[in-house]
Design goal:
mainly beta
Length: 120
């Protein structure tokens, strides 16, 4: 089995910064893309940022220039650096990974989510 564990969420004032981390563990052979999604009540989960194994990143238009995604392949970890946070960034943030396990099966794994609350 493969699990993703997120950390780093919390309460921050508008204009502040947070760094989210997500560590993958378990029977991992390789991880392709990793990314972050977010969801607010009553809305669909939306892509925030994703990054390939080689480091190519893409962002939602709403966070370009504000958020930065990175990863450490040796640690099976993906990060999301969030700056200049706004109340509208308040959401549950979910980590996502496209995993190949030791049996060479490929599947998508989700973390349990971490809440980010930005106060005005």
């Amino acid at each position: 089995q493969v699990q993703l564990v997120e950390s780093g969420g919390g309460l921050v004032q508008a204009g502040g910064s947070l760094i989210l981390s997500c560590v993958a563990s378990g029977s991992i052979f390789s991880i392709n893309a990793m990314g972050w999604y977010r969801q607010t009540p009553g809305n669909q989960r939306e892509l925030v940022a994703s990054i390939t194994r080689s480091g190519s990143a893409r962002y939602a238009d709403s966070v370009k220039g504000q958020f930065s995604i990175s990863r450490d392949n040796a640690k099976n970890t993906v990060y999301l650096q969030m700056t200049s946070l706004k109340p509208e960034d308040t959401a549950v943030y979910y980590c996502h990974a496209d995993v190949i396990n030791t049996a060479r099966a490929q599947f998508v794994v989700w973390g349990q989510g971490t809440l980010v609350t930005v106060s005005s």
